Automatic annotation (TrEMBL):
GN (gene name): fliS
Subcellular location: Cytoplasm, Cytosol
Classification of source organism: Bacteria, Pseudomonadati, Pseudomonadota, Gammaproteobacteria, Alteromonadales
Pfam family, one: FliS
Domain of life: Bacteria
UniProt keyword list: Bacterial flagellum biogenesis, Cell projection, Chaperone, Cilium, Cytoplasm, Flagellum
Keyword Coiled coil among record annotations: no
Record-linked PANTHER family: FLAGELLAR SECRETION CHAPERONE FLIS
Organism this protein belongs to: Alteromonas profundi
Stated family: Belongs to the FliS family.
Listed GO CC annotations: cytosol
Biological processes, Gene Ontology terms: bacterial-type flagellum assembly; bacterial-type flagellum-dependent cell motility
Protein's name according to its UniProt entry: Flagellar secretion chaperone FliS
Length: 142
């Protein structure tokens, strides 16, 4: 099978995963996608492939911007505010990594994002269900 066919299969599989995912799984997929793009950018940087480096850093930044911009600061309080600031910091580090070809900045973003992803994995099922129930009720009240 050609690489083009494999990539088409992966895209179709990803679309299927997204369509069937709950909000918790979607957020987890975003975290993992950002970490993957950072790793790919680091590899491209090591090969002096600046086009690929730029593409992967841009994609990782876009994911972090989305995560930052979808925080509910009213409901999340201090935790949301801290995450907002941390996402901003990571976005700035990615910009630095891109402009200065700084692999250490990529490593720092990965080291900050990995524990968040890991903590997200540890959220108990009951807590996820309660959060979704509250979110649905809030939407219905509007």
């Amino acid at each position: 099978m050609s690489l083009k066919g494999i990539n088409a299969y992966k895209k179709g599989s990803l679309k299927q995963d997204v369509a069937n995912a709950d909000p918790h799984k979607l957020t987890l997929m975003l975290y993992q996608g950002a970490l993957d793009r950072i790793a790919y950018a680091k590899g491209a940087m090591g090969r002096n492939d600046y086009v690929q480096k730029s593409e992967y850093i841009t994609r990782a930044s876009s994911i972090l911007i989305h995560l930052r911009d979808t925080l509910d600061l009213d409901v999340g309080g201090e935790i949301s505010e801290n995450l907002f600031a941390l996402y901003n910091y990571m976005i700035n580090l990615l910009t630095e990594a891109h402009v200065q070809n700084n692999q250490n900045a990529l490593d720092e973003v990965s080291s900050l994002l990995t524990p968040i992803r890991d903590a997200w994995l540890e959220i108990p099922a009951e807590a996820k269900e309660e959060a979704y129930r509250m979110q649905r009720e809030k939407k219905q009240a509007l």
